[in-house]
Amino acid sequence: MRVNYFVFSRNYRELKKLLDSVQSPEKTLDLWNLKNREKLNIVINEVVRLFHNYLASAKTLVEHTRILIRAWYKEEDFFQEYEEQIEIRFIKNSLAGFIEGLRNYSLHYTLPLANAEMKINFEQGGKNPSLDFTFVLHKRDLLYWSDWPKKAKPFLDTAEDEISINGIVEEYFLIVKKFHIWLYDRLMQIHSKDLEWLKEMNKKIIGLLSDEERMDRGLDSE
Q1: Domain, as residue range, for 106
Q2: What is the pLDDT of residue 71?
Q3: Among the residues of 33-152, which ranges form H helices?
Q4: Given this model, what pLDDT does residue 212 score?
């Protein structure tokens, strides 16, 4: 489970690093310069590549976690608690439904093509303009696909015409992160006695080792 979460988390961080790297005004203006159109296209292609990896690893994490929990705890009381958390955090969450649908869209239909968007925001009175640079999906392009699952439609029905990749990537990651923190904490509670036993057994095994064997294993010789 830790490996699966690591893969998803690492894909998120690589995508976020790229998205954040172009947020400075200097980088934004450089990419938006007509002379640098090829450079902007390269960045957009990288966003699409990393976004695809993020979506695929999100589905992998969902499926592998479900398989493991069902295999280990299907006959335990905890399984019902797990199912309730899935219902609250994911099944009833329109963004989670959209992310799952978008993964199917990218694997079975076409890659979700990203577009770059720059806005200039002015404070009241027209002073101190700031740049807002983001990558977006156009809802009209997504709706050409007729196989969106039912769980994805609430998000699409209420989404703006331009869906911020930056926004949905960050929001969904936080949903998954909070769930896995809950899951890890609950499993630690459920297996607290087993883990305490394991800790004591490890101490006894270490106690049987000679000083030389402990040193070879990088353990405290005391």
Answers
A1: 2-190
A2: 94
A3: 37-73, 77-86, 94-108, 139-142
A4: 76
